Amino acid sequence: MKLKQYFTEKQEEMLSLIEKLVNIDSGSYDKQGIDQVGAILQKEYEQIGFHVTVHESDQYGNTLSIKHKDAGETNIIIVAHMDTVFPDGTAKQRPFSRDEKRAYGPGVIDMKASQVQVLYIMKGLIEMGSDAYKNVQIVLNSDEEIGSVSSRPIIEKLAADKKYALIVEPGRADHSIVSQRKGGGRFTLTVHGKAAHSGIEPEKGRSAVEELAHKIIKIHALTNYEEGLTLNAGLIEGGTSVNTVAPFATAHIDVRVVTQEQAEYVTKAVEEICSKPDVEGTRVELTGSVGRPPMFLNEQSESLLKVIKQAALEYGVTLKDTKTGGGSDGNFTSALGVATIDGLGPVGGSAHSEHEYLELETLVERSLVLAETIKKLS
């Protein structure tokens, strides 16, 4: 039996498991739901001879690292996350559904379809008699949507000695895969002022809101679209009432960078802006960092990209690659110097929304491309 026949025959079985996973709420802070998804996948892997290590977390879901019991040193790491962005109850409100071309549901493309894709690639390689499954270390992590706060050290430790990192975030809507991602981080500005009645004695107050406005304007001015550097105060709050000079105000700043040099520059610039007040008598506290490094297309990653595109061509698929402003766990593996390509999961769209979907025909197609890639790299 050839791989294409295998995945075609297993498509409905794969969709059945995707449905099961989609119908479990597993938001980033829903430890119970994430661990339920993990337990299902752990059982599936153990049934085909893989050893699963459970990395316990008290606050977040557990992260799983998976390798076949007969595997020795592995050259490939595959990373997929089990968490979604959706609150508890979403799966019940709009459970898995499908029509002739698409499947729908919370997390269906980001990235529960990818979880099933990777599992069935391992099953398919075993079925085909290929030893390539022994060359793979799989990490299923629990908190990618909130920055991989607990799983990043695990990913970095397991990726450090690898040659290749295959990240199965969904393929882009135009079917391209991802060769470059921006790095990024967040800063929080907390301004302390002094309250006063705005009608009776406003001169005795020190407005934290006014101070925050000065800071936001200066921080936004650091944005350079041509160089790909952006800063955005996406969330602000402050004050106690409309007729009170605001005693406090807070801004949360999103930062995106193309290079590590930009990360260092923007960190220093934001620190300088916040080092002294524009409104006398106010005080600014700055926390946060640019903690996610950029994922860049170095020589090793370019070579990996060629292998993936060649694997796709053997099944009549022409793959394009693209760069994106969003981050993923591929940023961490790339920063270690590991050849990294992302967006290798099935294709879909409208992730993080109520319209999220999986293109059904790409489940087999992307499984074939990734399986063939693993064979070539092994």
From TrEMBL:
UniProt key word Nucleus: no
Keywords: Carboxypeptidase, Hydrolase, Metal-binding, Protease
EC number: 3.4.17.11
Entries under InterPro entries matching the protein: Bact_exopeptidase_dim_dom, Pept_M20_glutamate_carboxypep, Peptidase_M20, Peptidase_M20_dimer, Peptidase_M20A
Keyword rRNA-binding: no
Domain of life: Bacteria
Enzyme class, first EC level, given as a word: hydrolase
Domain (Peptidase M20 dimerisation) ranges: 181-281
Coiled coil region boundaries: none
Molecular function terms, GO-annotated: carboxypeptidase activity
The protein, known as: Glutamate carboxypeptidase
Organism, as annotated: Caldalkalibacillus horti
